[in-house]
Amino acid sequence: MRGTLNDQSLIYLQIAAGLEDDILRGVYREEEQVPSTNELARVYHINPATAGKGLNLLVAGGVLYKRRGLGMFVAPGAAEKVKEKRRSAFLDGYVRPMVREGRSLGLNRGELLAMVERAIGEGESE
Amino acid sequence: MNAAVLQAAGLNKSYGKNHVLRDLDVTVEPGKIYGLIGRNGAGKTTLLGILTGQNTHESGSVTYGGQPVWENQTVLGELCFSRELSETLVGGRNSLKVAHYLNAASLFLPHWDRDYAQRLLEEFSLDPGKRIYALSKGQRSMVTVLIGLASRAPVTILDEPAAGLDVVMRERFYQLLLEDFGETGRTFLLSTHIIEEAAAVFEDVLFLDRGKIIEQGPAEDLVAQFHTISGRADEVDRVCRGLEVLSTETLGRHKTAAVRCGEEALSPARAADVDIAPMNLQKVFVALCGHEPAR
User: Fold this and answer.
1) What is the dihedral of CA B243, B42, B13, B49, to 10 degrees?
2) What is the pLDDT confidence band of residue A3, given thresholds at 50, 70 and 90?
3) Residue A106 zone, left/alpha/beta (φ > 0; ψ -120 to 50; rest)
4) Average predicted confidence (pLDDT) for chain B
5) Which of B200, B203, B277 lies nearest to residue A45, judging by beta carbons?
6) Across chain B, which distance is largest between two alpha carbons, in Å?
7) B202 and A47 in contact by Cβ < 8 A?
């Protein structure tokens, strides 16, 4: 989870995104328990209803599941589900804004593609 | 008595010529943390006093679980309004001791939790033998917070609980509040004019402005309706046409507009060359209640 919350997006979305990040990083593994609404509320100073909304969003997406009377657990295949969801949002969330910014800077198609190629190359050589 | 709805309808209250509350309606449901937000002098404390039968009002009704609150001992035991302690009393300084207040609370509040009160006394390093006038502003706030928490009342009302506390104690206060709420799920109603740090603690907010509750509902739903649109002035004006614009600020050719609308109405703006940013609760409050008081 992120250390602090910001006010650039709704808090329950940040709670959900933070838990997704932790699932991708292996902080919470499959079949492991994630923090409860009250724990999240206490740590982040947020209303438990807000924390619950974030957790329920992940339950609806099949990333977490409820064990009655025990709490919320990471679903099998959760990391793959998070990646899949984020892949489908990648075009709108990252590529389109990048292209728009490139256009406003006067970068042409070739220049933009060359930069993307270069960044990919740098990532591979690391 | 089970947790019930605290409700006021058509409240009117004046101090001389000053009409403080005007046909005010409010509903406080069980099991939520409410934030009552208003500017200085908006009538927050007056309203809280009336809701708990401590202040009179000219017209309107206040009920808890359908029963009138005024001079109704059964109902009043369920409601705790922990008021700010005054440094002075009629005729001089307030030389009552902390222990006197705790003792009075234990007599008048049927759900009083003596052990919890003791733990909080230690946590806050409060000396029960100290006289109220000898406490710092922060320590007086701690006493009111302590009484509110240890009251374990199904509806607990705190007036500006964080105002006198330093930043470390404020953080600790929100933590204690959320721990208690996690355990008991009782109703809390907190008034504040310091919005930013408390915003995420509230499930529902009540905006008090010019004697009326002008907004009430889930804080997140309210905030989600507000955005700022900024960019070149002509482009901002174009995409804002037909939207409810609350305020604008122009800096040369740059313009920022605060708008209230649903996601669908925003879609033309999303396609345009403008920046759209969410607003936080504090900015929403300023946009709605930031007018000149005398207008």
Assistant:
1) 120
2) low
3) left
4) 91
5) B200
6) 67
7) yes
Closest by CA to B281, choosing from B194, B178, B159, B177, is B194
Residues A30 and A66 reside in one and the same domain: yes
Q: What is the DSSP string of A17-84?
A: HHHHHHHHHTSS-TTPBPPPHHHHHHHHT--HHHHHHHHHHHHHTTSEEEETTTEEEEPTTHHHHHHH
Among B33, B165, B178, B273, most A C-beta atoms within 10 A, so best to mutate, is B178
Q: B225-289 sits in which CATH class?
A: alpha beta
Query: Does A98 lie in the same domain as A59?
Result: no
Domain containing A96 equals 89-125
- CA angle B8/B11/B13 to nearest 5° reads 140
Burial label for A4, CB within 10 Å (0-12, 13-18, 19+), is exposed
Looking at the structure, do residues A55 and A105 belong to the same domain, yes or no?
no
Q: CATH assignment of B6-221?
A: 3.40.50.300
ipTM: 0.79
Q: How far is B216 from B129, CA to CA, in rounded Å?
A: 42
Q: Which are the contacts of A114, defined by CB distance < 8 A and separation ≥ 6?
A: none
Whether B220 and A12 lie within 8 Å, measured CB to CB: yes
**Are A66 and A115 contained in the same domain?**
no
Q: Is residue A42 part of a domain?
A: yes
A22 and A51 housed in the same domain: yes
Q: What is the pTM of this model?
A: 0.87
Task: Test B178 with A7 for CB contact under 8 angstroms.
Answer: no
pLDDT digits (tens, 9 = 90+) for A19-78: 999 999 999 999 999 999 999 999 899 999 999 999 999 999 999 999 998 999 999 999
pLDDT digits (tens, 9 = 90+) for B154-196: 999 999 998 889 999 999 999 999 999 999 999 999 998 888 8
Task: Report the Cα B40 to chain-centroid distance in Å.
Answer: 12
How distant, in Å, are the alpha carbons of A103, A109, A110, A111 from that of A115? 13, 10, 9, 6
